[in-house]
Each structure stands twice: as C-alpha cells, then as structure tokens.
C-alpha cells in the first residue's frame, strides 16, 4: 500500500437514530479506485470504524461514526457535500457481461450530465441503465430507465420501486443513443416544469395521466 496514492472522496453525512453518523461515499457507478480504497481503509483503521456497507444505488455507507468524531472523519476521507450527484444504477453492460448488447457506463455518465444540466427538479431522480433485457440496472422501476437491445435502447420514464411500485411509461423502443438522450432530456424538462414539490416522476404521471404525459413528450 505504501506506493499507492490516497484519493479523496465526496461524502454526504447522514444522521442515524442512535445519534451516530453515516458517511455516504458518493462513488460513481459503484467504481472504487485503489487510492479510494486506501483512504477508506486508513480512515476506518484510524477511527476504529468497523462497518462499510454497499447501498442499492451503487454507493458505500461508512457507518457508526460518533457525533464528536464526524468532522475529523470527514477531513480524513475527503469533502462533504449537502447534495450528492443523483443516484444512478448501471449494470456492467456489453464488453463486460456476456449477455450485454449495449455499452452502459458511458451512457450512464451522459445521463448523469443531462440530469445535472436540466435541474433543479421537484424531487429526486433515480436512473437505471441495463445492457440487456435482464435489467440488472433496475431500469424498469427507475424514474429514468434504459434497457439495451440489439437494435438500440428502450427508454422508460416514471418507474418506481417505492410503495407505489410500478414500471415506467415507454418513451422509445430500440432508439439510438442520441435519440435516447434527447427523449430523456425532454422528460427531465417536463418533470422540472410539471412536477409538484417532493413528487416523484411516478406520482406526477399518476396525477396527470400516462397518455397525457406521453402526448406532451411527443
Ligand atoms: S442487464 Fe444484461 S448486460 Fe447488464 S448485467 Fe444484467 S445480464 Fe449483464
């Protein structure tokens, strides 16, 4: 480990019921570098922290940080932010997974940029990108969902894995990457302009009607 350079991480502190804190390590698409791992390991050792847990959004939670040590732990690990980048779940995709027919990682990055460019939004947006119809990226139940097929992407909008779980409405079938991004950009603007405060895309579509939303996005 001596010749490995430590890397700083972006973290979001979250208070827990018992008064301790979790630091959410905001890694992109679940990808940790060796330098990041070194930082995390050294911090955990230094502060005697024993729990690092993967989240559903492909991030990591460093758990059990005492209130009076929070600032020191943050300084050791990186930089704290109020609002991390939106959550995105991206499967390995073509080139890595034997079933993958579309490349997912660069598509995930492009969607994340689109989400940042078009905000702010009424509430959170979760995205899923899957390289084939197996949908390991949870695409069917994400606000923005992409599913790779041999001829392009199926794009859906307004899926949710909440208590009102449901699949998103279809915005496009077998479309090119460029067309998929254009469809997503339109949907993001529609949500920004029509969603109510703290209303997810699924709630907005339920309120306005799927057919009306699809017609508006044509
Ligand atoms: S969705 Fe398809 S490409 Fe992605 S990990 Fe699952 S099986 Fe592989």
Automatic annotation (TrEMBL):
Signal peptide: none annotated. Pfam families: NIR_SIR (PF01077), NIR_SIR_ferr (PF03460). It comes from the Bacteria. InterPro entries: NasD-like, NiRdtase/SiRdtase_haem-b_fer, Nit/Sulf_reduc_fer-like_dom_sf, NO2/SO3_Rdtase_4Fe4S_dom, NO2/SO3_Rdtase_4Fe4S_sf, NO2/SO3_Rdtase_FeS/sirohaem_BS. One of its GO terms (molecular function) is metal ion binding. Residues 87-217 form the Nitrite/sulphite reductase 4Fe-4S domain. Residues 15-77 form the Nitrite/Sulfite reductase ferredoxin-like domain. The keyword Metal-binding applies. Keywords: 4Fe-4S, Heme, Iron, Iron-sulfur, Metal-binding, Oxidoreductase. The keyword Heme applies. Gene3D superfamilies: Sulfite Reductase Hemoprotein, domain 1, Sulfite Reductase Hemoprotein,Domain 2. PANTHER family: NITRITE REDUCTASE (NADH) LARGE SUBUNIT (PTHR43809:SF1). This is Nitrite/Sulfite reductase ferredoxin-like half domain-containing protein.
């Amino acid at each position: 480990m001596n010749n490995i350079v430590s890397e700083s991480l972006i973290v979001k502190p979250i208070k827990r019921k018992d008064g301790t804190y979790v630091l959410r390590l905001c890694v992109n698409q679940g990808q940790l570098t060796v330098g990041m791992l070194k930082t995390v390991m050294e911090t955990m050792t230094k502060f005697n922290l024993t729990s690092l847990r993967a989240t559903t959004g492909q991030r990591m939670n460093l758990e059990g940080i005492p209130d009076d040590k929070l600032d020191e732990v943050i300084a050791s690990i990186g930089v704290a932010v109020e609002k991390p980048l939106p959550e995105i779940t991206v499967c390995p995709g073509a080139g890595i997974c034997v079933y993958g027919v579309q490349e997912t990682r660069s598509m995930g990055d492009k969607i994340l940029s689109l989400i940042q460019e078009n905000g702010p939004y009424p509430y959170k947006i979760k995205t899923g990108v899957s390289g084939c119809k197996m949908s390991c990226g949870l695409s069917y139940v994400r606000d923005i969902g992409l599913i790779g097929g041999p001829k392009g992407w199926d794009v859906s909008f307004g899926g949710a894995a909440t208590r009102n779980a449901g699949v998103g409405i279809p915005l496009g079938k077998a479309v090119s990457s460029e067309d998929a991004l254009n469809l997503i950009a339109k949907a993001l603007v529609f949500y920004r302009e029509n969603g109510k405060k703290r209303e997810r895309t699924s709630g907005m579509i339920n309120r306005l009607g799927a057919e009306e939303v699809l017609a508006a996005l044509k």
